[in-house]
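Hi support team,

I submitted a single chain yesterday and got back a structure, but I'm not sure I'm reading the token output correctly. Could someone confirm the output below corresponds to the sequence I sent? I've pasted both exactly as they appear in my results page.

Thanks,
R.
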Amino acid sequence: MGQKGSSALLEKKLLNNYELGDFFLATPSRTVLGKGNFLTVSADKETGNNFSELSNRVSALLSDAKKKGHKNPTIVGALPFDSHTTAKLVVPETLEISEPLEFDPKDKLETVISSTYVINPVPSPKEYANGVQKGINYIKTNRLKKIVLARSLQLTLPEPVNVNQLIHNLAVHNKQGYTFAVDLPNESANYNPNSFVNRKTLVGASPELLVSRSGLTLTANPLAGSRPRSKNAEEDKRRANELLSSTKDLHEHAVVVQAVANALKPYCKDLNVPEKPSLIHTETMWHLSTEITGQIDDPSISSLELALSLHPTPAVCGTPTDLAKQLINEIEPFDRNFFTGMVGWCDAEGDGEWIVTIRCAEVANNSLQLFAGAGVVGDSKPEEEVAETSAKFRTMLHAMGIDRESLDLKLEG
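Hi R., thanks for writing in. Yes, this is the structure output for that exact sequence:
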């Protein structure tokens, strides 16, 4: 994948060299910066944005890039939740890779936004709770096992968002996660792709690896079942233990793990699925986690093809998938776009990694749209899902420098 740097300072250089329009991804194993646009994956004339043919189109584009003289062609970018939205996948002109980001303990967060901003929750906390109750009602009719319902916060600022500082803040506080920035399609009439003005950027710090491929080894790390963290150490430990023994959350997690395992089995001669989940945490949340590993049968199966076989998992959509998607479109009063899609890369050999696009926002000039979702099952309680999504917003809000207490009323109603 691209050209690997050896300097201990290169990873910070990549972060500092990020500009609007670039692709940036920091993971626990590497830092990636893609610049320029050598080739773009466009919608197929016959199938449109259909994901089913996307892997073949990407393979053809990578082959074409090699013929045109690109030494190490790699696809980078983002796929949306639903194929009705156009994916943003490109072969960058240059791609630099270094070691994982390391920060000096003295590194401090700088506030990304001013103290004057307008915030609008869509839907309101009360409307979201009503939507969760609709989901529970569907589940109780036995038509549905699980549905993931989301809400958003729309922020408007008096000045453009400092995306560089936002990425830095996210990376500092999410060292074990996946910090990303991806240039998005912008259909505005006055959009100039060669200008930094009117750029639309997907920014976030996801805790969840959808799937990676290195040689013939694949790894997937589904997360489902969550609890907000507490600043009180004793209470924080109690919440973690409660999550690990929660019948409702263990069931929700098991549904996701089974779906991921079933999707990956056809590609593997060996698949290891732990019997019980473990706990992982971010700065704001506890999650139930299961790390699945396997050996791929066919070396021609790329990381993108594996990711597409999983997308969307019950962790971000529900089960059965088609019914959950239909109800999401009915209940949620906004378009998810790239939220609960995936971000990542895939090289010409098929290696790559794809991250679930959560804990994120879409940034355009002086506005941000933040997203958060929660898994709903039969035992769910609407007020608890409101609290869970409120806690998930805080990954982005904290990186922006917004005080938690001043937002509690807006977040939870």
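A quick pointer for reading it: The two ends are 47 Å apart (CA to CA). Let us know if anything else looks off.

Best,
Support desk
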